Amino acid sequence: MMDMLLTLALILVKLLLIFGVVLTLAAYLVLAERKILGRLQLRHGPNRVGPFGLLQPLADVIKLLTKEDTIPAGADRPIFLLAPGLTAITALLAFAVVPFSPPITLFGRTVPMVVCDLNIGVLYFLGLSSLAVYGVALGGWASNSKYALLGSIRGLAQLISYELSMGLAIVPVVLATRSFSLTDIVMAQANIPFALVHPLAFLIFFISMLAESKRVPFDLPEAEAELVAGFHTEYSGMRFGLFFVGEYINLIILSAMITVLFLGGWHGPLLPPLVWFVGKVLFICFIFIWIRGSLPRLRYDQLMHFGWKVLVPLALLNVLVTGAVLLWLGV
Amino acid sequence: MSLWRDIQGTLQPFWVTLRNMMRKPVTRQYPEEKTVPSFRYRGRLVLTRDPQGEERCVACHMCSAACPVDCISMQAAEAEDGRRYAAWFRINFARCIFCGLCTEACPTLAIQMTTDYEFAKRDPLHFVYEKDDLLIHDGGKDLHYDFYRHAGIGVANPRGKNADEYGPVDPRSLLP
Fold first, then answer.
1. Which of A30, A82, A66 is nearest to A248 (CA)?
2. Residue of chain A whose Cα is closest to the Cα of B14
């Protein structure tokens, strides 16, 4: 009984820690993005609230909370109200399977540094990432606005073009590890990260992640220039904030997935494992922001062509070659 | 080799943005770091005085006639010695478009533009400037110009006694 309670308490503590860290990180990622984007464009970025603009996220939250929450006439009310939560929740749920450090020993018991070490962690992540698009689709559809609808249609079209190659790009990793558990995948990269062993899979996965994050160059569902704000055009106040935060939580989880699947997770010399993990995640986030500052937006037929005619065949070929090599090596 | 060009075109922007990140931002931090406008910047209007400290304005209404938005109004008056001046002079800066036509029209260099661009107020009524608000204590951009000593009409000196002025000529003596 005591043992079970202790396990439960540990899970709760881990949950709270991850919640706190991830939400704070997401808030400050918004600031970091604005700052870095500013510097890329020879501007300063926000620097008025607090020293170096460090209190900007707080000011943003206060602004969002005190804004009027408008619901357009003719909107599908319950779905309209639920959609932002769907995006944020699916992004948060995915953190359950991300291992951020090797198991530690606490009070004579080994504690795995992951909320829940599912043996199908990869599939769980893929499932949640597909669910996340429901927030986009329903939010856009329920808004009763043509821009929002166009945005959500693009979101769905985008989903079917990158999802396949994303799944296929993970296959070589799973083949090499012989496990769907993310902890096992990280363990298998103790000597060399998979990005070096499977560079093509890494590239395809990275591009798919760009599309999954709905950011430049694949920010078609939002496309400020054409669709106002795409699927969240009609949202205001904290509901818009939920979409926004969900997007940045998503960015963190995607960076974490790239780190875990291809960059060797917590493995690294000298520094403690947790520092390596967080450092790699933040580095990938920086790359995402850098890409946003550098590339233009593609048309969505270009993305679909690219997804179906380039990424999927390449990923299939990669799976074939990797499988053949592994069979030949007899691993 | 269009594929090679595509790859180049995808990678080059990253180098450009990274190089920019290493450079100093070009932003001017406005409230702390103020811009110094050029000498001829068209900011708030003032009324200047001549070297003697008298008002330059002779209330000729040229400025208010030139003003495209009719924001200048005044009442002309004449002093004991024949010197004209404005009994009251009013500029409504809420209407002023800072075009500078009034300063070009002014024959005595009385009305001049300054470089003051921090000129925002909450109440439009506070933009109505009276003569007391407009007058400054020196000659503005041209400190030495003195209208009455160039083309006097017997105010500063008797007629024809100014520095670059000839005395009045009897028109009958010019007859052939």
1. A30
2. A294
ipTM for this model = 0.74
Structure tokens at B24: 């100093």
What is the tens place of the pLDDT at every residue in A108-121? 677 777 777 778 88
Closest CA to A143 of A70, A44, A204, A202: A70
CB burial class (10 A; 0-12, 13-18, 19+) of residue A274?
middle
Instruction: Please give the Cα distance from A170 to A256 (Å, whole number).
Output: 14
pLDDT score for A331: 64
Q: Cβ contacts (< 8 Å) between B26 and chain A: which residues?
A: 42-43
CB B134 within 8 Å of CB B128: no
| Chain B CB within 8 Å of residue A48 CB | no
A39 chain-B contacts, CB cut-off 8 A: 20-21, 25
Q: Is B35:B28 a contact under the CB 8 Å cutoff?
A: yes
Q: Any chain A CB within 8 A of the CB of B13?
A: yes
Q: Are A65 and A237 in contact (CB under 8 A)?
A: yes
